[in-house]
Design brief:
Strand content of chain A: under 5%
Largest interface: A-B, 23 and 29 residues
Largest sheet of chain B: 3 strands, antiparallel
Number of strands of chain A: 0
Shape of chain B: globular
Strand content of chain B: 5-15%
Helix content of chain B: 55-70%
Order of helices and strands of chain A: HHHHHHH
Structural class of chain A: mainly alpha
Distance between the termini of chain B: 58 Å
Number of helices of chain A: 7
Number of strands of chain B: 8
Oligomer: heterodimer
Chain lengths: ~160, ~400
Amino acid sequence: MNPCRLRLVLPERVAAVALGCVVALGAVAAIAALGGALLSALDISPESFRLGAALVLVLEGARALVFAWPAPEPELAGLEAGLVPVAFPLLLSPGVVALAVAAGGDDVEPEAVGALAIACALTLADTLIPRGERADTLFVAGGRLLAALEIAAGVALAVGAIGDV
Amino acid sequence: MRRLLVYAGVFVLGALVLRVAVVPAEVCPSVTPAEARTAVDEAAGWLERGVQPGGRYMYGYDREADLVSLDYNITRHAGVMMGLYRLAAETGDREALAAAEHGLSFLHANLLRHDDWTAFAEPGQDARLGASALVAAALVQRRAATGDTGEDDLLHGLARFLRAQQQADGSVLGTWSVATERALPGEYSTYGTGQALWTFALMDDLFPGEGWDEAARRLARFVATRRDEVEGHYLTFPDHWVAYGLAELGPEGLGEPEVAYARKLAGIFGLNSRLEAQSGEDGLRRLLRGEPASGAGLGTVTEGLAQLWRLSLQDPRLGDLTEDLETRLRCTAGRTVDRQIDPVEAQAAPRPLLALGAWFSEDGYTQMDHQRHPLSGLLATLPLLEEDAR
């Protein structure tokens, strides 16, 4: 999740963003809770799935690095914008969902929900910064930096998965 | 709404691609101790039926062409002897012992003596580290199987060759040149290094106080700290012989660098085991994962995992790996047993007895090490499977 890049497309309504965060946190908690059972049902070891999640992170990070300005998202009216587009597709990105499943496989569900909560808090804090030419330039730069970090995190996750039994 | 559906479609498609191409199912057939024991016996039977004149063993068999290979490799000869002696030592298998003893005459006929050492090398050929190390390991297993000390002088001579190849940094050079009467500088042996480590450790167990522990520890430190860099391996080289060596040295013989290295080695064997479990003989699995591992490939992964599992039970510094190693070991052992040619499948071969108990590659070929590695790997896995069955 990339709070700086998200700020460029999130609705200006803080309440909708907050609702989207709550929905995303609930969804990630549910996905993580089921992650272990899902991987087991699919005969995938947690270490192997971490490699897959790492690939998703790297691709997602690369996309955000190249396309620093996200395309505007159509949004539902009122608070329903918290569902579309805030919760989905903006917050529940492929990388977040893949990490939630991986966290379930590795029995670190609380850590996954905690990390998303921090990212959501940063996203909410971003919405307090008024948009403008200068702010957007900073958000783009910050988005690129976080995208690079996402790639690095993906590589680190892959290296860890390779090193695990 | 349309855009939302597109997103959902991309999500589902991405998940499908991930499933098919990146994380296909890991197929792990279950295996009982009885099935593993039968597989060991059948593999040993293939080797035992292959005894040839002159103390040799049958090297390989192509069931598609119905051709017995006339190739030979003395390191693999040593491996067969080692595997059969170890089986005899652990189970009292008399047929295995007799077949292993058969290989002694080939060993005695192919010895190179220089200074105070002896190497296992064919006449006129350079002495290779791996052949001598592995045949020395075989003679240690022979001691365990028979209690006979008649080969101790040869065993010491072979071990002295390994020590003569050892450098100041603990590494061991892979070849001794007949032409120059010197070790070839800078030339290492792919598996000879690990085989030498195991042999040094075995020698110290059998003949404590003779200084073999020092050679073993110096080599273990080189392997743990410099080997991959020196030999140009980007990832930790999955050397099952090093796993044997580390397990033999045990907790008292391992410093922190060796323990850290054992952890990395376990990781690379775990990765190989998972990737192998994702492979298949046809369909997308075949396309995306390539040919399933040969018998030797399956066997070496099983051997490596089994030795590191054994070490993890002894060394609390590696205790956190035990459960994962057990999971991988059960899986690889199950796949190994599953891929072996059983009596019914053997009937389809032109010569069923040359197929029975073997592991064939896709091209229909098998050779002695395709049976020897799974034999040793499954033998080392039996204690885990027996514990599971209790």
